[in-house]
Amino acid sequence: MAEVLVYVDHVDGAVRKPTLELLTLARRLGDPVAVHLGPGADTAAPVLAEHGAVKVLAADAPEFAEYLVAPKVDALQAAYDAVSPAAVLLPSSAEGKEIGARLAVRIGSGIITDAVDVEAGEEGPVATQSVFAASYTTKSRITKGTPVITVKPNSAAPEAAPAAGTVEQLAVTVADASKGTKIVSRTPRESTGRPELTEAAIVVSGGRGVNGAENFPVIEALADSLGAAVGASRAAVDAGWYPHTNQVGQTGKSVSPQLYIAAGISGAIQHRAGMQTSKTIVAINKDAEAPIFDLVDYGVVGDLFEVVPALTDEIKTRKG
Ligand SMILES: Cc1cc2nc3c(=O)[nH]c(=O)nc-3n(C[C@H](O)[C@H](O)[C@H](O)COP(=O)(O)OP(=O)(O)OC[C@H]3O[C@@H](n4cnc5c(N)ncnc54)[C@H](O)[C@@H]3O)c2cc1C
User: Are 262 and 208 in contact (CB under 8 A)?
Assistant: First the structure.
């Protein structure tokens, strides 16, 4: 069976969920071969094997941490040369997309980014994308070279399918040309204890209706009762009520959780662009005519300052 390269997103060997989703999708196309760059391959290997990796190609080099993505592209290209895969799958993070795009240029292949599904097709993998603010769903196939596809988080449910997951060291030579941008400092983001917005299974977002930074704890309390991430509309972040890193939408982050709850958000097209592929959408808005109600699965017409705390209390009660 053909092999499919899967680029592993991890923190010191702790594999992030989007990679497990990629392994699940990769199995539709062939035998997944995981590419693990940086420290922690031995920690990651059992998890990758559990989700279907027949092999784990591992490489660690100081350059991965010292420079921006180019050395990792050198390593992924080395894996590509070693395996001659049928496809290369990466997570649709900013880093995943840049690595994928650079690899595609180097190997003369086409690339599809932000896929929400990948299936095997007679003439190669077929990727589904949700485009133009999710007004269209497209299916595309790469016609040149080895398909390189980046897939959005939450596009598949990770399924276990134990495989060997044998770790093999990958020899990597980092080219001088890949050392063009050096990282000069790192500041860890202050942890909120909440899941990462783009990977969270549940997102609770607040908009202009929240009416002030001092009211965002109402949104956070609901999020915490559900183990959710907190998002915000651009109106809310531009007003300085919530950090820009939490903005959902065309010029913010794109999320596709199992459940998206929008409170006090009107549903402008630029906001929809970042959340419309969510599996279940719930809106709370006091205006029954708000456009957000056109796309919801469940809508509550009401004041968020009554509805959201009541919902939070009910969830806490049910959880016991
Ligand atoms: C180029 C460009 C890019 C953009 N990118 C983004 C983007 O990435 N993300 C984004 O979000 N926007 C983006 N915007 C802005 C977008 O057009 C909207 O202005 C923005 O989304 C509106 O935010 P909102 O829904 O919070 O505010 P509003 O449109 O003002 O809606 C507030 C809603 O809250 C409701 N409300 C008020 N009080 C309550 C209450 N007590 N209880 C319940 N409901 C209440 C109101 O009925 C209303 O529907 C972009 C715009 C442009 C031009």
Answer: no
Q: How far apart are CA 195 and CA 148, in angstroms?
A: 28
Output the CA 235–ligand 1 centroid distance in Å.
Answer: 5
Q: Using CA atoms, how far apart are residues 45 and 317, in angstroms rounded to an integer?
A: 40
> Best substitution site from 214, 265, 287 to test ligand 1's pocket, by max atoms within 8 Å of Cβ?
265
Whether the full predicted model's pTM is greater than 0.70, yes or no, is yes
- What CA–CA distances, in Å, run from 46 to 9, 55, 59, 159, 164? 15, 11, 16, 14, 9
Residue 306 is inside which H or E element, if any? helix 304-319
Q: Give the whole-angstrom CA distance, residue 305 versus residue 107.
A: 54
Confidence class for position 230, pLDDT limits 50, 70, 90: very high
Confidence of residue 294 (pLDDT cuts 50, 70, 90): very high
